């Protein structure tokens, strides 16, 4: 019997260390992949500025803004209407985009607003376009960029200020408006309502990796390495500080990137003063491209209502 058990003991002694080694390697591989993917998500390749307002017959001024963090320089444009401006509307682009956000597209919409007498400010968030910064933070620090642009507008112009943003820029506009009472209203196209909960559910859409274990690893490792608090990018926790100022939420029911329910949740927090426009068939931030006239009419009607409230 002893002669038969000895080989088994040797096999066990070899098998256990091998299994432990494989588990350690697998864990290290998952951590390595998570760090790599997380780094890529927060360090997107910058999209070049390939068109300007001049391409749409608009005169403009190149401007450098300073983020509210008082150190990050942001590049952008100011597009003024003929005569006295009715209002200043600050555009905020989405994740991985830049100031002209060509997939929306921003400049044709800006032209329609400028022709109606609105001043439009367009700028690049940190780590995007031609602005400084090396990390995209999905609203956590971008809200300080937008607050810096708002400060510039308040210092240079007397007209009321409204915010317009798409996707990450929409969420950031909500966050910034909650922190600055001088913002009269917000137009939020396809925002997420809470960054942490959105990422927990939708990270595989961005990474093409299984939720377990990668979503949890990425959401643990990257914030720790970058000193980020994802809780600072939670528009649904900011809307109470905006009301009774109005917000117009725009979302497509067929948005494959950010579910329209994200906007619905925020709208319902103050449905007496917030507005919601849902449409169908449009993909993510494609509502203006698909329904340009109706979209413009909704935006202009909202801005006119803000002006009316300002005069009362």
Q: How would you describe the overall organization of this protein?
A:
This protein is an alpha/beta fold. The protein has one domain: Alpha/Beta hydrolase fold, catalytic domain (Rossmann fold, 3-Layer(aba) Sandwich). It is 45% helix and 15% strand. It has helices spanning 2-42, 106-115, 142-156, 168-179, 195-207, 211-226, 261-269, 287-290, 292-311; strands at residues 61-66, 73-79, 88-92, 119-123, 161-166, 183-189, 247-252, 275-279. An eight-stranded mixed sheet has the order 1-2-4-3-5-6-7-8, with helices on both faces. The chain is elongated and about 85 Å long. Residues 73-206 form the Xaa-Pro dipeptidyl-peptidase-like domain. Keywords: Aminopeptidase, Hydrolase, Membrane, Protease, Transmembrane, Transmembrane helix.
Task: List the keywords.
312 residues, alpha/beta, Rossmann fold, eight-stranded mixed beta sheet, 9 helices, 15% strand, elongated, DNA-binding_regulatory, aminopeptidase activity, hydrolase, aminopeptidase
Task: Please state how the strands of the largest beta sheet are arranged side by side.
Answer: 1-2-4-3-5-6-7-8
Envelope shape: elongated
Query: What's the quaternary structure here?
Result: single chain
Please give the alpha-carbon distance between the first and last residues: 99 Å
The share of residues in helices is 40-55%
Number of domains: 1
Tell me the CATH architecture: 3-Layer(aba) Sandwich
CATH level-3 fold name: Rossmann fold
Kindly report the name of the CATH homologous superfamily.
Alpha/Beta hydrolase fold, catalytic domain
Task: Give helix and strand order, one letter per element, not per position.
Answer: HEEEHEHEHEHHEHEHH
> Beta-strand percentage?
15-25%
CATH class: Alpha Beta
Q: How many alpha or pi helices?
A: 9
């Amino acid at each position: 019997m002893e002669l038969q058990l000895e080989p088994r003991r040797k096999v066990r002694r070899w098998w256990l260390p091998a299994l432990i080694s494989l588990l350690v390697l697998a864990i290290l591989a998952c951590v390595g992949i998570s760090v790599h993917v997380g780094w890529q998500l927060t360090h997107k390749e910058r999209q070049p500025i390939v068109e300007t307002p001049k391409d749409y017959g608009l005169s403009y001024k190149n401007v450098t803004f300073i983020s509210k963090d008082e150190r990050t320089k942001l590049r952008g444009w100011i597009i003024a209407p003929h005569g006295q401006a009715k209002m200043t509307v600050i555009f905020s682009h989405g994740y991985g985009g830049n100031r002209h956000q060509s997939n929306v597209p921003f400049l044709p919409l800006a032209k329609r607003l400028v022709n109606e007498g609105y001043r439009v400010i367009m700028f690049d968030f940190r780590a995007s376009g031609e602005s400084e910064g090396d990390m995209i933070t999905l609203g956590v620090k971008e809200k300080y960029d937008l607050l810096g642009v708002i400060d510039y507008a308040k210092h240079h112009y007397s007209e009321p200020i409204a915010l317009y943003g798409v996707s990450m820029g929409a969420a950031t506009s909500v966050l910034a408006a909650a922190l600055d009472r001088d913002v009269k209203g917000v137009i939020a196209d396809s925002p997420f309502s809470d960054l942490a909960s959105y990422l927990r559910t939708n990270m595989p859409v961005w990474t093409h990796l299984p939720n377990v274990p990668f979503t949890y690893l990425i959401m643990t490792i990257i914030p720790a390495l970058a000193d980020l608090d994802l809780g600072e990018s939670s528009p649904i926790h900011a809307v109470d500080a905006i009301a009774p100022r109005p917000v117009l939420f725009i979302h497509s029911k067929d948005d494959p990137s950010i579910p329209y329910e994200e906007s619905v949740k925020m709208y319902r927090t103050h449905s007496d003063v917030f507005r919601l426009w849902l449409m169908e068939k449009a993909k993510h931030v494609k509502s203006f491209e698909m329904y340009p006239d109706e979209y413009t009419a909704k935006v202009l009607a909202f801005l006119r209502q803000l002006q009316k409230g300002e005069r009362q």
